Amino acid sequence: MNDQSHNQIDPHGPKAIELAGVSFGYGGRPVLEEVNLAVEQGDFVAVVGPNGGGKTTLLKLILGLIAPQRGSVRLLGRSPRQARAQVGYMPQQSSLDRAFPITVLGAVLMGRLGNRPGFWRGADRQAAHLALEQVGLAALAQRPLAALSGGQRQRALVARALVGEPRLLLLDEPTSNVDVQAEEEFYDLLLRLNQRMTIVVVTHDLGFVSPYVRHVVCVNRQVLIHPTSDVTGEVISQIYGGPVNMVRHDHKKNGGCFHG
Quick check: keyword Repressor in the entry (predicted)? Predict the structure, then answer.
């Protein structure tokens, strides 16, 4: 990665994410209606909401996997397709076959497929090794991916998203299958990465991530964004459409998890 990868936030540039009047539905059933959302460059955002509320649809719209039926989506001032090379994406771990015979380095190199399909150059391998260094897995580059712990696999997936030198990093339920200690270490890593890129995390665990994120995007057919300090129990109840329970986690952040 070049030196510019360490200073990719332009506070005077276009919004990292901007949706204007966006609506989308399936088979005539509205999922998102008249969404207006602006995420500044350098922000750290959590996306929360009930199952079926539209979180996955919102993520697909941002990634450009689906197009809005009304309205517009812009990433870093460009269309999702035009901005794709500047966006890193980490899917849920369940989408990765742990038994697939590939090394950690090979899995990370898959993040360069969009640059030069079919073969790797020295610059690709260098970028992959640097990405592994950033997530603390440089010593495990030749280890089989299946041999890693849950927390290590999550870091390998982050490295795969970082290898393209993104300015915007999107993560879908990134810690759904790891223990509390690994989860805390993972978000500490994201906090360091946030110094040079915008980060958006889709999560059910708002209580845990609240010490890390600056804004919370609440998705339940409509979309609202709040500073983290404004997200109270009453706001959470409104997001989920009813009472919620908060389960405390036993760790130094003293966070919790909201369940609908």
Answer: no
Confidence band (pLDDT; 50, 70, 90) for 116?
A: low
| Closest residue by Cα to residue 128 from 152, 157, 159, 154 | 159
- pLDDT over 80 at 120, yes or no: no
Percent of the chain, pLDDT > 90? Answer: 51
The CATH number corresponding to 8-94+166-259 among 3.40.50.720, 3.40.47.10, 3.40.50.1980, 3.40.50.300 equals 3.40.50.300
Q: Is the dihedral of CA 77, 80, 85, 87 positive or negative?
A: positive
The answer to whether 247 and 253 have CB atoms below 8 angstroms apart is no
8 — pLDDT class (breaks 50, 70, 90): confident
Residues 79, 82, 85, 86, CA torsion sign:
negative
